[in-house]
Amino acid sequence: MNIVATRVDERLIHGQVMASWSKRLQLKRIVVVDDQITKDDFMKTVLTMSAPSGMKIDILSVKDAAQTIKSDSGNENTMLLFKQIAAALDLAHELKGSSSEMTELNLGKR
């Protein structure tokens, strides 16, 4: 996976992400990292349906995201998207010292 953006935005997948970020970064995949949403089937459906046709959406816990990022050798332009800063920090801790270490974090409006 080619991580081209790492963003915290409590709105998650919404107009700005889809209209601006996805086009500018030529995104093919968004990975939503949130332990709570992984347990909420309704929210998973809403987020998946919010994405444009052809956009791959993964909704993963922090632990699963770390494993996926470390093992995925694909080259799809990917955005990591977090609802809360705490999840981003947890993932950064999980990835520290790996070849996929997080070095930047974009903060969306609150």
Structure description:
With 110 residues, this protein is an alpha/beta fold. 37% of the residues lie in helices and 23% in strands. A 5-stranded parallel β-sheet has the order 3-2-4-1-5, with helices on both faces.
**How would you characterize the largest beta sheet?**
5 strands, parallel
User: What's the shape?
Assistant: globular
CATH first level: Alpha Beta
Number of helices: 4
Tally of DSSP β-strands: 5
Q: Helices and strands, in N-to-C order?
A: EHEHEHEHE
- Largest beta sheet: what is the strand line-up? 3-2-4-1-5
Structural class: alpha/beta
Mean pLDDT: 91
Unreliable stretches: none
Provide the CATH superfamily: Phosphotransferase system, sorbose subfamily IIB component
Q: What gap, in angstroms, lies between the N and C termini?
A: 28 Å
Helical content band: 25-40%
CATH fold group: Fructose Permease
Secondary-structure arrangement, i.e. CATH architecture: 3-Layer(aba) Sandwich
Please give the domain count: 1
